[in-house]
Design brief:
The complex is a heterodimer of chains A (175) and B (116). Chain A is mainly beta and 175 residues long. Chain A has one domain. Chain A contains one helix and 13 strands, in the order αβββββββββββββ. Chain B is globular and about 35 Å long. The chains are: A mainly beta (175), B mainly beta (116). The interface between A and B is medium-sized, with 33 and 36 residues.
């Protein structure tokens, strides 16, 4: 009887330990992405990311609330031209990062998001999203765009450069 | 930004926007954006610095430095373009301006270089 109790206790400790390990270890990503990277846990860039995803699809998309994408000083680069971005004509949906309706999503710099043919970061359908410490450059649309479906976002400490579009009636730019 | 009840603070926006049409910006409130606070940002060299569209709700613009918008080349080659440090197209009661530094504006308290 006593042996059985110890086995049960050890099993419980092992299961709890495994859970703690899985929660404590963030996902990591670097290199070339050919499909949208779905964020399901805290995620760290461990190198530069080049996005070669399909037209009109995001590079990174949150799918759970309350987690972070941390750039750690690396870059996320889209398919726009290095000098002209998209030349003024955006491709809807082709964004660097979308919060995709997830609340308390966090995109945290330092790091560079550049050359997307849509917005660099799109905060959509989210409450209390945070976008902090990024450099956002040469995107077509806005560098960081908070849609009408989002509330109580914090956009803090970012640098936005050379973003915009030429579409009449669709004013955009840095933030 | 079209969202609501958000804070945009301590950001730097440079060199954003095309000049044709001249409605791009460093920081913008468009659509029906309301309840937002835009504060302590540095906004220079954009087509427009801070752009507030006609249909937005009540928002606060305070303690920003918004100068050098647009670059002088835009004013030279596109003199008809309405591009300024602050462009406010919303009704006068909708936007609260407080202690911003700016030189050129439409419907905003500029110039103000040493705001009190």
């Amino acid at each position: 009887m006593q042996t059985r109790s110890w086995v049960v206790i050890l099993l419980l400790v092992a299961v709890a330990g495994a859970g703690a390990t899985m929660q404590g270890r963030p996902d990591t990503v670097s290199g070339t992405l050919t499909r949208t990277y779905t964020i399901v846990a805290d995620t760290d860039l461990t190198g530069d990311v080049t996005c070669a995803v399909a037209d009109a699809t995001p590079c990174f998309s949150f799918s759970v609330p309350g987690v972070e994408l941390r750039l750690n000083g690396y870059s996320i680069t889209g398919r726009g031209d290095a000098t002209t971005g998209c030349g003024g004509t955006p491709t809807t949906g082709e964004v660097g990062v979308t919060t995709n309706g997830q609340s308390r999503a966090v995109v945290r710099g330092p790091g560079l998001i550049q050359r997307f043919r849509g917005h660099g970061v799109q905060v959509t359908g989210s409450r209390e999203a945070r976008v902090e410490g990024l450099t956002v450059s040469t995107n077509c649309g806005s560098g960081i765009f908070v849609l009408a479906s989002s509330f109580s976002a914090l956009i803090e400490g970012n640098t936005t450069l050379r973003n915009g579009s030429t579409v009449a009636g669709a004013a955009c730019g840095g933030i | 930004m079209v969202g609501h009840n958000s804070r945009v603070r301590l950001n730097t926006s440079h060199s954003n926007g095309y000049s044709d049409p001249p409605d791009d910006f460093g920081i913008g409130l468009v659509g029906a954006a309301s309840g937002n606070v835009i504060e302590e940002n540095l906004v220079t060299g954009n087509t427009n610095g801070i752009y507030i569209a006609a249909a937005v709700g009540k928002n606060v613009i305070r303690e920003n430095t918004v100068v050098g918008n647009p670059p002088i080349q835009v004013a030279t080659t596109s003199p008809a373009a309405r591009a300024l440090d602050i462009v406010n197209l919303a009704p006068a009661t909708q936007t609260e301006f407080d202690r911003n530094q700016c030189l050129t504006a439409l419907n905003a308290p500029c110039p103000a270089i040493a705001p009190r």
